């Protein structure tokens, strides 16, 4: 005997028709609530070349610890690379898979990794690994770089990073994962403006654009628009996280030091410090905005909201690479021993942060924004 067809309840139909049209669209599932004992957090991953291996170490420890649930990730340059590999691992198999894929990626990206010979030659030529620091050969190559661009040194536009990214990251799977917010920044070469790519628009080209340092790689064209490294305008970009996530806690993994003792005197030291200041300027601007909004809320001049897109106090936390002793050109060192050293440093820094500040997450920020962003007057 066949089952009788279900009758449509007219009252339910009328109620549905009266709902706003936006409510009729397929609802986007929110990030799942973290299990008991976990706290939700957003990650801001700064770029800094090979120093991104420090971020690998930080992420490795946070994933192993297991007490933080990641709701949103924003990355630039090397931070963008870490962000998409992390997202891919979380989508495919959770924390342990993310740890495994991050480790495999950084091994493959090292000089001892498994890049094809043609790509390895391009990488070695662009990154100048052979000459020792201070050697005549290094001085000659640095002088050569003043006259030749990546368009001259790499006429076939071979980008070793592209094949690695495409090998390790399933971008289709990331774009389908609606529970995780992901943002990658790049700099429009022609306008100088920031371009933010949300998760649903992230591709291998977007990551390449975010990591395209002008003196090492050609500009990456997306829809006919050329892009350079995202660190110039958003390192990392933070504001999209406030509009799309509910957590009020933001953990920044900072690679470029805000402060360096002493005055740089050599041309190389001067250029390195200029780059550090430049790559931190956008981050400082966003931290200044966070501090300003928080101060207005505290003074009662701005109403505090409670959801995504509303004015809220953001609890800012930071894990920073203490790299006063690292020369600027070490950002181009892709020796795996160097990566492992930075990885260990990242794990130690993450452990110290959680030991000292886990209880603060969800309660208060652990960065003194007022002194951090204060301008010097007079």
TL;DR of this structure?
This protein is α/β, with parallel strands linked by helices and 378 residues long.
Q: What is the topology?
A:
Layout: H1 10-18, H2 21-24, E1 39-45, H3 52-65, E2 68-75, H4 78-93, H5 95-109, H6 117-127, H7 136-145, H8 150-153, H9 160-168, H10 171-176, E3 181-188, E4 194-198, H11 204-210, E5 220-222, E6 225-228, H12 239-244, E7 249-254, H13 267-298, E8 315-320, H14 336-357, H15 369-372
Helix pairs in contact: 3-4, 3-5, 3-14, 4-5, 5-9, 9-11
Question: Which terms would index this structure?
Answer:
alpha/beta, disordered N terminus, 378 residues
Q: In terms of per-residue confidence, which ranges show pLDDT below 50 for 5 or more consecutive residues?
A: 1-34, 121-141
Number of strands: 8
**Number of DSSP helices?**
15
Structural class: alpha/beta
Largest sheet: 8 strands, mixed
Rg, alpha carbons? 23 Å
Gap from first CA to last CA? 90 Å
Measured as a percent range, the helix fraction is 40-55%
Oligomer: single chain
Give the overall shape.
globular
Succession of helices and strands: HHEHEHHHHHHHEEHEEHEHEHH
Percent of residues in beta strands: 5-15%
**What would the average pLDDT be, to the nearest integer?**
79
Structure characterization notes:
By secondary structure, this protein is an alpha/beta fold. Helix 3 runs parallel beside helix 4. It is globular and about 55 Å long.
């Amino acid at each position: 005997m066949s089952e009788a067809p279900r009758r449509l309840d007219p009252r339910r139909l009328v109620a549905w028709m009266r709902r706003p049209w936006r409510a009729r669209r397929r609802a986007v599932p929110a990030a799942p609530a973290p299990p008991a004992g976990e706290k939700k957090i957003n990650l801001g991953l700064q770029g800094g070349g090979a120093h991104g291996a420090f971020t690998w170490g930080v992420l490795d420890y946070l994933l192993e610890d297991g007490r933080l649930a990641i709701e949103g990730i924003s990355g630039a340059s090397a931070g963008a690379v870490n962000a998409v590999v992390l997202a891919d691992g979380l989508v495919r198999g959770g924390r342990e898979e993310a740890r495994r894929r991050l480790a495999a990626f950084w091994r493959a990206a090292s000089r001892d990794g498994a890049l094809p010979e043609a790509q390895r030659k391009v990488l070695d030529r662009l990154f100048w690994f052979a000459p020792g620091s201070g050697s005549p050969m290094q001085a000659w190559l640095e002088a050569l770089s003043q006259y030749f661009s990546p368009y001259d040194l790499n006429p076939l536009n071979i980008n070793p990073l592209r094949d690695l990214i495409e090998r390790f990251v399933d971008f289709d799977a990331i774009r389908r994962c609606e529970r995780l917010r992901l943002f990658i920044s790049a700099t429009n070469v022609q306008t100088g403006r920031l371009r933010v790519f949300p998760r649903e628009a992230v591709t291998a080209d977007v990551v390449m654009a975010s990591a395209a340092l002008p003196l090492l790689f050609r500009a990456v064209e997306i829809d006919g628009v050329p892009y350079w490294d995202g660190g110039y305008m958003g390192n990392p970009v933070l504001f999209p996280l406030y509009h799309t996530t509910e957590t009020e806690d933001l953990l920044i993994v900072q690679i470029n030091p805000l402060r360096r003792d002493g005055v740089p005197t050599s041309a190389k030291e001067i250029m390195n410090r200029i780059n550090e200041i430049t790559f931190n300027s956008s981050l400082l601007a966003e931290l200044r905005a966070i501090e300003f909004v928080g101060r207005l809320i505290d003074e009662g001049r701005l109403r505090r909201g409670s959801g995504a897109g509303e004015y809220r106090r953001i609890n800012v936390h930071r894990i920073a690479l203490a790299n006063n002793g690292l020369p600027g050109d070490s950002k181009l060192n892709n020796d795996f021993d160097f990566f492992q050293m930075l990885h260990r440093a990242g794990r130690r820094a993450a452990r110290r942060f959680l030991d000292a500040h886990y209880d603060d997450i969800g309660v208060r920020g652990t960065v003194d924004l007022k002194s951090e962003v204060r301008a010097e007057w007079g």
